[in-house]
Each structure stands twice: as C-alpha cells, then as structure tokens.
C-alpha cells in the first residue's frame, strides 16, 4: 500500500479542497486508535466502530469549519467524544452496565490480563474498574493507557493543562490499583510500577 | 470476540460504508447544514435581523417617541442577549466540547426569564391612546392578535434553526434552546411592534409566546426521554 506522508492538517486541507482520497488516508491513520479509545469508554467494539464511523461523517459535514493552522487530531477526538456522550445519553446507562459476551452461567470467559499498553480492555475487571472512575479520570486514562498518547497529547485532546491531566491520571491510576488489586496487577509480570503516571519517554 | 482494533479488511469495509454515506445526494437542508459555522451563524443572525428590520421599517409601534428610551433599549438588549446566547449554543460547532448541562440550563433560563421580566414591568407610560387599550373586554382579542403575530415570527426562527443546525434539532440541547431563543425573539419583535403597555396584555399576548414554546420544549424533552426506553 502506498502511504501518504503529508501531515494530518495538509490532508484535511486537501480534503476540504476536494481531494477525496485524503479522507481515506486520515481514516487509515486515526480510525484504529480511535476505535480502541472509544471501546475503552463504551465497552463494545461494535458501538465503538459506530461512533468512529459517525465521527468521520461529522468530520466531513463540518469540514468547512477547518482552518489552516488548526490541529486535526483534537478536532477529530472532540467530535468522537461528543458522539460518545450522546451514545451514553441515548442508551441512558453508564458503561459499567454494558454487557460483553459471557460464558455459561454469566461468567466472563476472557482471560485476565495485566494492565499496560497492551492490556485487553475487554477484560471484565478492567472494564468494571474503569467504569467506576469519574469521567474526567477515565478519559485521561483511556487516552494515555489504552491509546498510548503522551500526557502532552492528552492535554491537547481534552483541552486541559498538562499538570491537570497528570493529576487526574495519578488519581485515576491510584484508584485503578485499589480496584484491580495486587493479584490482578501481578499477572503477566506487571506490578504497580507498570501503572505509573510517568510520561512515556518516547 | 472481536478484538478492539479491527483488522485492515474490517477497517476497509467501515470506510466503504462511510464513503457510501458521503456519496449520497445532498439536499438543500443538508447543504445548508454543511456550510461553515460562520456562514450558518450569519444566516441565522440574518433571519433575525430581517425580522427586526421589517418591523422597524413598516410595523413599528406608534408610541416610540413617548416610550422612555433607556427602558426600551434595556428591554431590547435583554431580549437580544437571550436570543444571541441561544443561537450561539444551538449552532455550536461539533469539534468543540459540548457545553455542560448547567450552561445550557443557564441560557434556557435567560431565554424564559427575559420575556417574563419584561412583561412584568409596570406600564412604561400612558401618554398615547394606542398604549392604554387592550385591557378589560378588549384583552383577549388584542392578546390573541399579539400572540399570533409573535408566534409566527418565532416559528419562522425555529424553522431557520432547523435548517441550519447540523443535527436538524434532533439533539435535546439545541432543540430546547432553538424553541426558547425563538420565543425570546418573538417577544423582541412584539416589543418593537406593540404599543400596548399594560402588564396583563404583555403577559397574555407576549410572554405566552415563550410559555407555549417552553411547553413545546418540555414535551419534546419528555418525549425523547420516553423514547430512550
């Protein structure tokens, strides 16, 4: 596959100018991670895919609002988060009530997995723990932990200062450690240090 | 169970479904909704200004010279502020974080309270023959006339908001604020048009425009809440 090395913003500007292929490249770049982020909030891949598809549709409908000098990623994520909140409102329930496939007797059949960048966000304990966090903390942790954004990027995406984002993350991770417990954290060799609030060096 | 990150083939199918939606014919209303927020805001403001211009040029109240100017300007400013605030929230672009429910409630409250307060003020003057009618046996016919006049302008504004708001007023916040902002606009038009100053006429013929639209907003919200199941 031929990759396009233009920046997101150059692609969006080209799309506004009529280059339909630019949207495909933007979708290829951003959809996978955005689906992962939305699934972290919604607890369902199908719902996350619906929200991401609607987010790109809204990006298209609002394309004439895009101005040179703006950054695309915060745009796209804000659109997706707005849709995700509408989704919750429409469903009238919080993510902890969303159900995932379970085995006979209602037991989760997913193997538990240690928290970390490759954590399976479908593991029931992680879903339940995340759902118990305040939305501001959950938002930061999903973006940082599941999606792998740096704190600077998370701050940009949620429209908050980096220090405020770090405080939210610190509190959220602390609460997650309490909720998940040491047994869960030891699985896969992870320990509490694996879930720190240090900004990734990369 | 599907993995959180879909396979390339699944992503391709998602994009093709998206492309199919993008390639669907765009009608007049959808074309308007896809304009920039600046263009949509200018269009909605233009509709409101056109109403004010029509009234000011051809249908303005006959007692203007006798009406205390500071009070008139204060009244118009309060109603215009409520209309503008509601319009800004209704057309807020999708790439900006949604306002919290408190902000929406604040703007909705202002759009309801401004007409109510204006209608509750004591009569501004009694110096023009046209200003002292509309009470007693004359109350209902005069009030009905003003109500129909104001509601007509308000519904025109709701129609404009429907054509310009990107969800076609399917979202609760924009729908409620479009109705209540339109009610405030209907009252603003009546302030410019109607010379009757008695508070009972103001309540019966002017504030009722906002009250009816408030009831419509409550019904719309309840209906959508029930619809959620």
From TrEMBL, chain A:
Entries under InterPro entries matching the protein: RNA_pol_sigma-70-like (IPR039425), RNA_pol_sigma-70_dom (IPR014284), RNA_pol_sigma70_r2 (IPR007627), RNA_pol_sigma70_r4_t2 (IPR013249), RNA_pol_sigma_r2 (IPR013325), RNA_pol_sigma_r3/r4-like (IPR013324), WH-like_DNA-bd_sf (IPR036388)
Keywords of this entry: DNA-binding, Sigma factor, Transcription, Transcription regulation
One GO term (biological process): DNA-templated transcription initiation
Pfam families, sorted: Sigma70_r2, Sigma70_r4_2
CDD domains the record matches: Sigma70_r4
GO molecular function annotations of the record: DNA binding; sigma factor activity
Family: Belongs to the sigma-70 factor family. ECF subfamily.
Protein name: RNA polymerase sigma factor CarQ
Gene source species: Enhygromyxa salina
Gene designation per UniProt: carQ_2
From TrEMBL, chain B:
Taxon lineage: Bacteria, Pseudomonadati, Myxococcota, Polyangia, Nannocystales
Keyword Transmembrane appears in the UniProt entry: yes
Domain of life, source organism: Bacteria
Residues spanning the membrane: 42-60, 72-91, 103-122, 142-164, 176-198, 204-223
Protein name, UniProt field: DUF1109 domain-containing protein
Keyword set, alphabetical order: Membrane, Transmembrane, Transmembrane helix
